[in-house]
Design brief:
This protein is mainly α. The protein is built from twelve helices and no strands. It folds into two domains: 107 residues, Hypothetical protein af1432 (Orthogonal Bundle); 75 residues.
Length: 219
């Protein structure tokens, strides 16, 4: 049985007529998430189905026909599977297939091209949502007995990097006076920002760091 083809067919049926926040066919987002997953048919099938249970309840029963790894992954990806966000992300982080699909989902939703299509207030709200999700999912697993960095610690580092970047940009704008050389205050702020980024990169998995930095950090 080609479960990927079956999942694609069900997703196309379930999401028919739905649109994303920018007014595009919702199935385009689902297809991009599935396309981002390679060499793992169980995860790719789950990616096609990742929003069916939550967003298309009339089709949820059809997911039961799929193998357990796919069913379990899709179930975990539904917000209804957990009492709150902390439990939701904790469960996903402990499940390799669900984590793979969720990170591909966030990467597509958080892509700058997609966020630029939205109203600034909506884009800012979603950046905050995705930042919190990446902090919960993206702590690098330590090889020793040391605990993984807490999401709150990652959020503090993320906020510091974003603030330093914004201050550096403000310094550059306010100090423009025809000089070709970068303004000293901006250079200093970016230097400190880069130290924060290095610490953040050391504490996050590479994939989650890249997704987050694409949203926020500019040179």
């Amino acid at each position: 049985m080609d479960w990927v083809a079956q999942a694609r067919a069900l997703a196309s049926e379930a999401h028919a007529g739905q649109q994303d926040k920018a007014g595009h066919p919702y199935i385009e987002h689902v297809a991009r998430v599935a396309a981002a997953i390679r060499d793992d048919d169980m995860a790719k099938a789950a990616a096609w189905l990742h929003d069916v249970v939550e967003d298309c309840p009339q089709h949820a029963a059809q997911v039961l026909a799929f193998p357990a790894p796919i069913r379990d992954t899709v179930s975990l990806l539904s917000r209804h599977s957990a009492a709150d966000a902390n439990q939701y992300y904790a469960r996903i982080r402990q499940h390799p297939l669900a984590l793979k699909v969720k990170l591909a989902d966030i990467a597509d939703n958080a892509h700058p091209r997609r966020l630029l299509q939205l109203a600034p207030s909506v884009a800012d709200r979603l950046r905050g949502k995705y930042t919190a999700a990446l902090a919960a999912l993206g702590g690098r697993i330590q090889p020793t007995a040391a605990a993984d960095p807490a999401p709150s610690r990652l959020l503090q580092l993320m906020d510091a990097a974003q603030t330093l970047t914004a201050l550096a940009d403000e310094a550059n704008v306010s100090a423009r006076n025809g000089q070709d050389a970068p303004h000293p205050r901006r250079a200093a702020l970016l230097k400190v920002r880069d130290i924060v980024l290095a610490e953040l990169e050391a504490q996050m998995t590479p994939q989650t760091f890249v997704i987050w930095s694409d949203m926020y950090v500019q040179s």
